[in-house]
């Protein structure tokens, strides 16, 4: 548990520049040393190629891993070392790292003794702490959604859970749409992905509109609860981790809940498109042509390119039904973004310089990395060319490379010329088979 400026306990953690005052301290960046006689854990922080914030983050992780007792964290000691680093950023790093690393999540293991981390520092940071508490709560909430086993985490399960957990938050309107509503809206792409499933499709809609002076933002999240690839079946080694294919929906809905709980001034409609992608007697076949909610006909070249299909109808929904002014989607969409960026950054695609600018500002505050990738005219031409003459667009091109950009070009066609930002989190949503709750900090900063 994280406490703030409470009565100090026996063991404290402080940051030091080096071991000049005590040679027993390990003079290595990010390595903690407990000197029992001092009742102090020393953490060396240096002006190193690894920045101060990263050193603090890694050092706090190491402390949590190695010491299982209550600790007072002297934030001011780190501030005195980390020149040109805002105290606010140091507090955020320490708080977020403790919250993330101590979260037990979904586990059958018995709970161990709760350890308290008491952050003490000078100055008034009450508003910051209030925000941090809420944002970290929903990062961990999203992580638990992501980690849910796929036999439990079905579309019906997520819809019911999110509805029940969100309905008590003041100012947040929550609605769940099912097959009947999706059929009435002509969501052929969404229903086409669901056609092979034993579970009913669900669309979770959260509306938090408290500031009409801001542009209304539509958030659309990919909620594929498990992705087998459909008739374009994935090989077994690519089937691992496909429960995380609903991460986009988890993070955009969690971020919306966080904004509402924080009473932020915002204007948002968030939509989670939940289904799975399986093989069944009614499952969509490759080479099928399906009409989308927008009226565009789509050639299904690859049933394993299903995420862009559910997102397309989700984008049309927020544009046509909710009259949004701009759109952001989040999705574990393509393997090719991993080839470009690995696990180090989220891929960002947009024709809107303003949205990229706002994303970069939010990223500076959140500490989450993004890298802009292109949507060239050639990408859209290929998406149209490979669909002709049977359809307007294809969901997957017949070329080997650049699929992340083809996917972005495909999605952009459903935004109706409104500012659109596509965030591909295939490389950042999960790590070591654990959900990361990525984007929530950035979306919070972007939209608040």
UniProtKB/TrEMBL annotation:
Keywords: Aminopeptidase, Hydrolase, Protease. Residues 140-443 form the Cytosol aminopeptidase domain. It comes from the Bacteria. Pfam families: Peptidase_M17 (PF00883). One of its GO terms (cellular component) is cytoplasm. Coiled coil: none annotated. InterPro entries: Leucine_aapep/pepB, Peptidase_M17_C. One of its GO terms (molecular function) is manganese ion binding. One of its GO terms (biological process) is proteolysis. Belongs to the peptidase M17 family. Presumably involved in the processing and regular turnover of intracellular proteins. Catalyzes the removal of unsubstituted N-terminal amino acids from various peptides. This is Probable cytosol aminopeptidase. It comes from Mesoplasma tabanidae. The gene is pepA.
